[in-house]
Amino acid sequence: MLTIDNLQATVADKPILKGLSLQINAGEVHAIMGPNGAGKSTLGYTLGGRPGYEVTGGTATFNGEDLFGLEPHERAAAGLFLGFQYPVEIPGVSFVQFLRESLNAQRKSRGDAPLSGGEFLKLARTQAALLKMDMEMLKRPVNVGFSGGEKKRAEMVQMGILDPKLAILDETDSGLDIDALRIVGDGINGIMRRPDKAVLLITHYQRLLDYVKPDFVHVLAGGRIVRTGGPELALELEEHGYEAVAA
Amino acid sequence: MNQIAALPTHRDEDYRYADLDALAPLWPVAREKIRVAPGESGTLSIVLSGYEASARHLVIDIADGASFDLRVLNTGTGFARVAVDARLSAKSEFTLGAAQLGGESANLELVTEVAHLAPDAVSRQIVRSVLGGEAVGTYLGKVAVARGADGTDASQSVRAMLLTRTATANARPELEIYADDVKCAHGCAVGELDGQALFYMAQRGLPPETAKRLMLQAFVAEAFVGAADEEALDAASQAALEALL
Questions:
Q1: Range of A65's domain?
Q2: Domain count, chain A
Q3: Chain B contacts of A97, Cβ < 8 Å?
Q4: Partners of B84 in beta bridges
Q5: InterPro entries this protein is in (chain A) (predicted)?
């Protein structure tokens, strides 16, 4: 589904990713772990196409397409979803309006008919229920006044509505209490654990991986993947720390 | 009052940014007088559009306990100016919600003087400008609180969004207070669309024009909240925004 080959990227002219390669196939869940400053969030933003994150070398192929040849909204329409570590507040624009316009823009670019207001609300209600989120919250402006945990849950509701092929989730577990962590974990499994979908979890900690079992765990350090293993690697990291394992 | 004044120059504070060549054929601008009788309420919406230069000057007297709600949507493509003098008597209320949406070489102006002449009057001004191209948007707003006008509650919220580096927003909220017990708030900000929000919206699949339109609609709509013809003003401002993007 996603093949990253020797990716190099800079932020404000500073090299952050220095030759990162990664292969993600449909049906797989990958976790990328690593210390602060390793380049984890930069990887997510670079794949999402955030302005200021400059690709200086390497390639990324997403379902046969050159990912870096697409604008951010085209990447979304191609099926890439980026869950934000810090979801952005947008005053005055309701979630319902925002998501309906987003979904219909994606559908349009894929040649599908737009969803009507009624069809959309039905879909939104189903996905909100999956994440135990009150539908009333989706009538409020995007993320405005939401707690950290509510924002992360809202990210998952958006993921459910937009139904991507690949979800890159950047520290979706940060700021969640134990109950919310379970709800979010169940949400990720329910929405994305399918043979035709894949997930890339970016996280500091093992705890989310108790709920969303990864098939592969990678250690990112110094802008490269320095080790790859199975779920046991996450436990090893938790026990011995990044320095010992990444060395 | 009725004497024919000479055409102003840029040295006159209220005309500092005006397109005087465009103003000349319209000079002198007639004062449109509005009186709201004690306890009554009135509303007015002014929509300016098109290339032809226009200038209006309203003088609004709001009597004791009366209220007036004025909304202005200025989408002119040339020089378009609205001046408002509001005089507030005791316990009266004045609301002004205005949006100035201009691109290319538009020069849009809103010049207000809100005089609190007696105690316990309330004035609210909300001005939102969206400027692209080489457009100039100006708000010059004075709130004058007379001696003895205690209990005055006045606010000015002025924000402008620049879509290009070549657009200009001028904003000058001004207070002149001769009473002791007053509450006057003013806020003024000129900025650009939030890049983080635009990326967030793009990441969910919104093309840049749509993302900008949604954010700007929300921004402009603040000027028309609670208006008698809110829907019509929102629709007209949406159409104007789409033309700007």
A1: 2-246
A2: 1
A3: 214
A4: B58, B112
A5: ABC_transporter-like_ATP-bd (IPR003439), FeS-cluster_ATPase_SufC (IPR010230), P-loop_NTPase (IPR027417)
